[in-house]
Amino acid sequence: MKKKQLHGEFHSSSHENHLITAYLLLIQSLIDSLASIGDSISMSAHIDLILDGLPDDYHTICTILNNSHDPPSLDDVTSM
């Protein structure tokens, strides 16, 4: 049951009214919780979740990262 709940929270996460740092910490916390019960999330899924949950204000950054020649790293995403 915990796994299903965490996956639900993971897939419904969005920036909403969080500060960007709080949003990134929320996602990392969910990923860490899933890993602690043996359900790891790939780095690409982690990055996709971050980018998909950002508001329209971040559209340009998301476009740059999604269209880059090399897949973005987590550091690339969080620094931008």
Walk me through the structure.
There is one protein chain. The protein has 80 residues and is an all-alpha fold. It has five helices and no strands. Helix 1 runs antiparallel to helix 2. It is globular, with a radius of gyration of 13 Å. The N and C termini lie far apart (35 Å). The mean pLDDT is 80.
Give the H and E element order.
HHHHH
Q: Measured on Cα atoms, how large is the radius of gyration?
A: 13 Å
What is the strand content? under 5%
Mean pLDDT: 80
Q: What summary fits the major beta sheet? A: none
- Judging from the principal axes of the Cα atoms, what is the shape? globular
How many beta strands in the DSSP annotation? 0
Helix content: 55-70%
> What's the number of helices?
5
Oligomer: single chain
Distance between the amino and carboxyl termini = 35 Å
Structural class, by secondary structure, is mainly alpha
Question: Which residue ranges are poorly predicted, with pLDDT under 50 across at least 5 consecutive positions?
Answer: none
What would you say about this model in short?
With 80 residues, this protein is mainly alpha-helical. The chain has helices at residues 2-12, 20-36, 43-53, 59-66, 74-79. Helix 1 (2-12) runs antiparallel to helix 2 (20-36).
What are the salient characteristics of this protein?
about 80 residues; 5 helices; mainly alpha; single chain
